[in-house]
Here is the input.
Amino acid sequence: MANILVTGATGTLGREVVAQALKQHATVRALVRDTTNVLPGTAEIAPGDLLTGGGLAEAMAGVDAIIHCATGFGPASDAELVAARNIIDMARKAGAPHVVYISIVGVDRSAFSYFRAKYEVEQLIRQSGLPFTILRATQFQSFVLNFIRSCETDGSIHLPKGLSFQPIAVTEVAAELVALALKPAQGSVPAMAGPQILKLEDMARTYVDIMQPGLVVHTEATESISEYHDAFRSRDSVAPDRAIGHLTWEAYLQAQKTEQ
Ligand SMILES: NC(=O)c1ccc[n+]([C@@H]2O[C@H](COP(=O)([O-])OP(=O)(O)OC[C@H]3O[C@@H](n4cnc5c(N)ncnc54)[C@H](OP(=O)(O)O)[C@@H]3O)[C@@H](O)[C@H]2O)c1
Here is the structure.
């Protein structure tokens, strides 16, 4: 039975990875900062912090693979790199387990600082000498839904113009990461993208129809936080030839509505 350490186990993706790895009968250890967090199933909790490196040696002891899902390490611009370096250093000392990293489609073509940091982490992992697999995915459906909801004020949704997404189900990405972790390291593997490329305003209208009837969708030209928006305007963040996800945006929203 494989021993897998999941970082970011309390996050959107990490939670699913833990659940799916347990379904595949792996022994799962979840790296968490706050041990009062409740995780699915029978994952072993390993307290640790990727920025300080505290707890990492214990968390990595005896693992065959690390699925690195943690992110959002705070305001420092090099925080993603600090965390990755801590993982790499500790993994070298822990017998070189397989490092599986989730990255994002288009990180190599974007000026957006978060994407650039992810690309640098990819490079660190490639040059680490550790066995690794890097999977890039498009945006999770939950990310786009949160984006749309964050643009909602006073009965209207005000969206920046010209953005497109190819959203994918987080469950499908999690399943693929677990499958990759259970195989020998493969280096950079082909990306995983959702089944449809959709304009943000069309996605918002489907959201309104299914979940929030009555809201009005507006699009507006905006230059604010433009590198972020540009990442989704340029079509560098979609992968039409890798549209292998199954769950459509509409089916995702219908499922969300049922869960409400
Ligand atoms: N969101 C998307 O659409 C998308 C698309 C493609 C790829 N990805 C990638 O998928 C990965 C997961 O994204 P997500 O949206 O699931 O992230 P998320 O929900 O924001 O979860 C982030 C996780 O990182 C943990 N974390 C933060 N700081 C930490 C630290 N210092 N030490 C240890 N753990 C720490 C958080 O733990 P706490 O609970 O302690 O805060 C949390 O579990 C990221 O690498 C992201 O770039 C995301």
